[in-house]
Structure formats: structure tokens, C-alpha cells
UniProtKB/TrEMBL annotation:
Residues 13-113 form the Aldehyde dehydrogenase domain. Keywords: Oxidoreductase. Belongs to the aldehyde dehydrogenase family. It comes from Hucho hucho (huchen). This is Aldehyde dehydrogenase domain-containing protein.
Length: 143
């Protein structure tokens, strides 16, 4: 089985998912559940403890160097606290130390690629501002 993915980084394209499904069907009909990780969201409301929200979203985004499919890479923030939340999040992310995992000052050890070893790449989190209109809308509304 060949993958349309770059072998240096993991991915699950629709083509690979189809191949896995077909292989399971042709064997002994094993049940297959695919981990379809991606843009896992966090939601921050205006009445939340903002510092705690920053800390927890940072954990979600950067756990395991942010290199796992469950990384919380989308953060929806209520409009009233959006600017302050983003400011604090950027400050927190900029304090992350990438380096030798045996160095006690290091927050993040080995990265999957040279590109992901730069502090700027750690700031690649999506922030959306939630307006009152959006909060009152149906769940399928894209904000």
C-alpha cells in the first residue's frame, strides 16, 4: 500500500482512509475506527478565568510538542475578552523553550521537522472571536 502523504510527516488523507477501510473489509471484517484528528476546538467565554483559560488552551495546543492529532489548534474566544486572551496566549507561547530534552530549562524537546522547531511555528494556533450574533446562532454556523 502506498500513501499519497509525505513520509516524513503523518497524515490520513481520504485516499489512505479508503485503503484502510477496503483492507479491513477484505480481511475478516474487523471494525475500524480512524482517529481523524485535526483542528480540535477550545471555547473561551468572557466570564471564564482568563489566566486559567490561557494555561489550559496552551496545554491543549502544545502537549507533546503540539505534534499529536489531538492538539487543540482552534480557540474560539468571546469577543469581549478576545484581544486580552490572544495577547496573553502569545506571551505564554513565546516563553516556550525548544531544545535539548535533557536540559531542565527546555519546555519542548525533539520536533518532527526543522520548520516546527522555531518558536514562530508554535504560535500557529487559530483564534476566532465569537460575537453575540454567533453565540445565538445555530451550531452549524461558521464564525
Amino acid at each position: 500500500m502506498t500513501s499519497p502523504c509525505d513520509p516524513s510527516s503523518p497524515c490520513l488523507s481520504p485516499q489512505v482512509g479508503q485503503l484502510i477501510k477496503e483492507a479491513a473489509a477484505k480481511s475478516n471484517l474487523k471494525r475500524v475506527t480512524l482517529e481523524l484528528g485535526g483542528k480540535n476546538p477550545c471555547i473561551v467565554f468572557a466570564d471564564s478565568d482568563l489566566q486559567l483559560a490561557v494555561e489550559e488552551t496552551q496545554k491543549g495546543a502544545f502537549f507533546n510538542q503540539g505534534q499529536c492529532c489531538t492538539a487543540a489548534s482552534r480557540v474560539f474566544v468571546e469577543e469581549q475578552v478576545y484581544e486580552e486572551f490572544v495577547r496573553r496566549s502569545v506571551e505564554s507561547a513565546q516563553s516556550i523553550v525548544i531544545g535539548d530534552p535533557l536540559d531542565p530549562r527546555t519546555s519542548h524537546g525533539p520536533q518532527v521537522s526543522l520548520l516546527s522547531s522555531s518558536p514562530q511555528s508554535l504560535l500557529f494556533i487559530f483564534f476566532w472571536s465569537l460575537s453575540d450574533r454567533c453565540l445565538d446562532s445555530r451550531a452549524d454556523t461558521v464564525c
